[in-house]
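input
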Amino acid sequence: MTRRRLQLGLAAVWLLDALLQLQSTMFTKAFGQSLAATAHGNPAIVADPINWSARIIEAHPAWTNATFATVQLFLAAGIAWRRTLKAALAASVGWSLAVWWLGEGLGGVLNGTANPASGAPGAVIIYALLAVLLWPADRVPAQGDEAFEAARPVGALRARLLWLMLWGSLAWFAIQGANRTPRGLPDMVAGMASGEPGWLASLDRDAATVLAGQGALASAVLALVLATIAAGIFLPPRWGRAIVLMAVVVAMAIWLVGENFGAMFAGTATDPNSGLLLALLAAAYWPQRWPQRQGTTTSGTGEWRARLTATEPTTRWVAWDELPTTITTDSSG
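output
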């Protein structure tokens, strides 16, 4: 998948956020009250600004929520339009960090409630990470290097370290606090059934029955899988592809069972939660071989092309969707 398609995927998620923000529930005091609940258990330096912003939203739910939806619409449109791409990606980082703090209470990281099966460390922080990794800039790789889209703006090592930090933190959260108790995970899954359609609520109840009394074991297995995904990104590309596929499967399983598609069917979601974002992030790490630096060549996946001209002593690496229809190359000399 090319970087441009990943950027458009991120734009689509921002558009989905805006549409969810336009639900009737979001224009009531209930929205502000749900934000205030994220302050519980957090240090005062984190909780006080959350309570302050929640009071404003509760007092003026209509115009504040309309503002939030409008911002998300602008971010979606800005990322989708090439001329405003950089500005929109930069703005999305700032907006994501603000929402992560004031809207998600830092994902429960500081109050001991973070659970990777229910969205920790907060979906919106993954928006910010994607904006960084999909930034339209390129670092020229060494000839023959294995690489991936997320490596283009920051380099392969930094991109892998960011992956390690994210998935490693998910593994850590899986075995913290209530998550490692026998009833922690089953109770969380069972609680998701409220307000969901019958088929999804039934799935939640069945999953909770399977996990009954086995929450600690299930959390330990989940932590092991997440830790494998975190460290596996450093494996050779043949194994790296298996790790990325594992990440996608785990992300979608979390999105279905632990997050109920972000509770979008219950009418209370402001975003699709972390599962979908984790899958999109994983797609940006799919390994592919950079082509050789001679004339116009393609990699085995057909995702990249090298362009070398007489006036350009080094190769400029561009994605297929960034190329003009016709390219003239000169590999002489």
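quick obs: The chain has a mean pLDDT of 86.
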